[in-house]
Design a protein that fits this description.
heterodimer, A: 647 residues, mainly alpha, two-stranded antiparallel ribbon, 33 helices, flat, B: alpha/beta, 8-stranded mixed beta sheet, 11 helices
Chain lengths: 647, 352
Amino acid sequence: MKRLGRALAVAALIATTLTFLGNAAGRFDQKLSLDKQIVHVLNRLTFGPRPGDAAEVRRLGIEKWIDLQLHPDRITENPALEAKLKPLESLKLGTWQIMEKYSAVQPATLITTLRAPVSPIALLPPLQTSKLMNGGTVEERRAVIASLDPDMRRQLLATAPPQVLQGLDDLQQEAAKVRQAEQEARQKELRRLMPPLNELLTPDQTRIARTGAKEEKLALINSFDAQKRQQILRAIGPQAFLDIPELRREAMAANQPQQLVNTELIENKLYRAIYSNRQLEEVLVDFWMNHFNVFNGKGQTRVLLTSYERDAIRPNVFGHFRDLLLATARHPAMLLYLDNNQSQAPRDDLPAPPTGPDGRPLRRPGLNENYGRELMELHTLGVNGGYTQQDVIDVARAFTGWTIYDPARYGEFQFNPANHDRKEKVVLGHALPASRGEQDGLDVIDILARHPSTAKFISKKLAQRFVADDPPQALVDRMTHTFTKTDGDIRAVLQTMFTSVEFSSEGAWQAKLKSPLEMVVSAVRALNADVGDVFVLAQRIADLGQPLYGKVEPTGYPNTGEAWANTAGLLGRINFAAALTAGQVPGVKPDISRFNFKPPAAVAGELLSMAPPRGMLASIENGIEAKEATPSMLASLVLSSPEFQRR
Amino acid sequence: MLTRRYFLRTSAIAVAGMGSAPSWLLRAAARVEAKRKILIAIFQRGAADGLNIVVPFFEKRYYDVRPSIAVAPPGKPNGAIDLDGRFGLHPSLQQLKPLWDSGQLAIVEATGSPDPNRSHFEAQDQMESGTPGKTTEDGWLNRALTPATPATSPVRAIAMGAKMPRTLRGNRNAVAVSDLQQFQVRNQDAAGILERMYAATADSQLKAQGKGAFEALKMIESINRTPYTPANGAQYAGEFGTGLRQVARLIKANVGVEAAFAEIGGWDHHSNEPGQLPPLLQQFGSSLAAFAGDMGDQMQDIVLVTMSEFGRTAAEDGNNGTDHGHGNVMFVIGGPVRGGKVFGRWPGLEPD
C-alpha cells in the first residue's frame, strides 16, 4: 500500500511540473497551419463547426469568411432558423404589449384582487382615522369601529395594524376570526378558479396526461373545451409535455405566463446559436449580454429582457461602444436590475421621514450607488480603472431621475426631473455644471466611453473571449489603439484582433475552455442534430452551471476557464454527451446514422472537423477493443473528450 | 511526503478498486481521520424570521409589534421553549433542545450583514461571498480551504444540490452532488475509456480535472455500494434532511471531507407565517438533530453553522407575516462549541 502511495505521489509531482511547463509555453508568434486555422476561426467566431462548415471556409478563404461574419447583413439567414423562431410570439412584441398579454391570472394576483386595494382606514373621515391610528383611547377607537357598516368593519378588522386594536381584546379575537374566514374564502375561490387535478381528471386520465404516449396525451387534451383544457394544463404544468412543444408552451402560458416570456427568450437564443448563419453576431450578442448582465430573477426584469436584448444590445454589437453603453444605461431592464430607477437626489434638507398610514415611518428615498459603481467597475473602466468613491457618488447623482415610466404596465425609459440632483458634480475630473437635468447622465456616458481605461478594459475582455484567458499584452495594446483611434468602433477593434498574428497562433489554439452553453451548442451543431424543442437543452445548460439569463451577479458569467473547470461539471458534460448521442434529450434528434460502419478515426474527424489527435484516438481504439462500440457510443466519447471541451 | 491523509486517500481508492471495504482499514482510518476538523455551512434561503425562531420573550416590545404572530412565552399553550429566561426556541424546534442542554448548541443573536441591502439576491450574494459591499468571485468557504496538495481529497468540499453554491465557488476543488446515487458516469464502459483518455491528455488543466472527477466518482461509488443506515435511530426529515444525511454518510466514509454546504429554502414569509413557519422549522430542527445524533462522538470534530441572508421586520405586516428586515439568529452546533448560551449583544427591537 505504501509503495502504491509513493508511486502516485511521484506521478502527481510530474503532473504538477508539466502543468507549469504547459502554461509557460506561450507561442503566440507561431502561426497555425491552414487546416488548424480553419477549425480555429470556426471555434472562435461561431458556436462550433457544423458538418460542412470547414469546407465552406476553405472555399471562401479565411479572410473573406471573417469579413462576411463581421458584416452579417451580407449573409443570407438560414430559413430553418426563421421557421423555428416563428412561434415565439413574445419576441416580436414591445414591452407594454408583453406586460399586457402575459399577465394572466396568477395565484398571487388573484389573492390581492380578492381584497380591497386600499386600506379601509384611509377611506374614513380624517378625524376617525386619526383616532384609530394615533393613539385614541380604547373607548374612542371602539366607538369608531362600532360606527362602521358590517362590510367596512370586516375589512378594517382584517387589515388593521396592531395599535388600532390595542386593549380591545374582544375586537382582536373578532379580527382573528375575520382573517381566518378571509383566508378560507380565498382558498375556496382559488379552488374554484384553479381546481386541483383530481377534480378535473380521472386517475386514468391523469396517468395518460402525465406519462402517456404523445398521441394519447394529445387526444386526451384535445377532448376538452377551452376553459377546462386551460385548467388542466395549468394544473399539470409544462414538465409533463416535454415531448410536445405546443402543449408545453400552452401549459406554461396557463401556469406561469411571465415565465413563458423568459422561456421564449431562451429558446430564441438557443435556436439562433444553433441555426443562425450569422454566427459571429450571435456570439457577440452573447458576449455583450453577459458584459452588461441583467438577472432574470429580479422583479419585472424577466419581461424586460426581451426588449433589452433585441433593442439595446443586438443593434449595437458591431457599432460604437458609446451607443451600446448608452442603450444599456437607458434600458428599463438595467435601470431596474441595478436599482437606478429608485435612485433620487439625496434629500438631507428635509426633516425626518413622515409616518405612513400604517404607523411606521416611511423610508426616505435617496441616492442609490449600485448602478454608478457597476457602470465604472464592470461596464467601462474596470475595477482598477482609476475612479474613487467620490466618483461613484457623483456618477450616481448624475443619473438620478433616469427611471422607468409605469414599470408595471408600460416599462419604458423616463427622465423624471423631480428626482434629479440639480447641484454641480465632478466626475473623473470633469465638472458637470448645476441644473442640466438629463444631460448629466449623457455626459457621464461620453466621459466613460472615451476614457483610456475603458479602451484597455474592453479590448482585454474581447481578447480574453476570442484569443486566450491571458492574452498577449502587445495584442491588447494594438486593439486599445484601434479603440481609441476609431472612437470605440467595435467592428474595427474586432478586425484588428482577427487579423493579428496572435489570433491565428499556436498560443491561441485550443486555449479556451468552453462554457456550458458553448459545449452544449457546439455538440448539437457537430452532430447536425435536428432540434424541434430547446426547452430541455436549456435545462441541461442550467444543470451544468450556466442558467441562461440567470446570472445573479452583475459580473456576468466568467470569461475565463478556471470557473468552468470543476469535477462535477466534467461528469455533467460526460453524461450530457451520452444522453445527447443516445437521443435521450427530448426535442433533439442527433444525426447518428451517418456514423454507421465508420471507424473511430472517421467519427472523431467529422465531429471535430479535423483529424483527431493521436492520443485521443488511441484511448478510444484501445478502449473499445473487443467490445461492440455503437456509433452513438463513439460519438459520445468524442464529445466527452478533453479536446471537445476546448475551442 | 507521504502524509497520513495521503495514505488514506490512496487506500480509499484501492478499496474502491477491490470492490469491498476491509473493515480493519476503515476502522484504522476512522481513528486517524477523527483528528480532521469539518465545517458545515447551512443556508436558509429567503430570509428566515429569527425573532420567531429564537423568541426574545422577555421583550415586551416583541409582543407589542407582533400581536397576531408572536410565539407565546414559555408556559403558555404553544409557548416557546425556555433557554435562559430571556430567549426561547420556537416550539417546533423541540428536537434541538437536547443539543442546547448538552452544550453542543450555541445561539448567536442579532447578527447579520453590515450592508443595509434588503434584496434577497444581493444579500445572499454578500453573505456567501463574505465580502459585503464588494464584488468577489469566490465564496467564503472556498477561500477558507487550504491550497490543495497531492494528498487533498477529491471530495474535500461537498455541496448538497444540483448547483455549486456561491459559498463554495472558487479556486479550490469542490464537488456539487444532488444525489450520491446519481453521481456516476452512466455508461460504465465509457467511464473507463474516458478515465484513460483524460489521464493521457497533454491538456494539464483538464487532466487535473479528469483525475479529480474520476477519483471522486470512485470514492462515491464505493460509498454507494454499502447501504447506509443512520446511527442512533436518527430520523432525517424532508429534502433538507436528505442532504444532511448524505453529508453524514460522506463524513463517516472517511474520504477526507473538510467542508460541506447544504441549504433549505422557503423562509420568505410575507403572509401567513404562523401557518408556514412550523412545518419548515420542524424539518429544519429535526434534521439538524438527526445529523448530530447520527454523527455521535464524531461531532467532536464537526462544527455546523446556520445563516440566512437577512432577518425580517420586528413588526408584523398586514398579512400575518413579516417583511424584509435586518439582523438574524445563527445556530452553531458541534462538539467543540461552547454551547448552552446565547451570544451577541441584544440591541432591542425597532419596528423595521
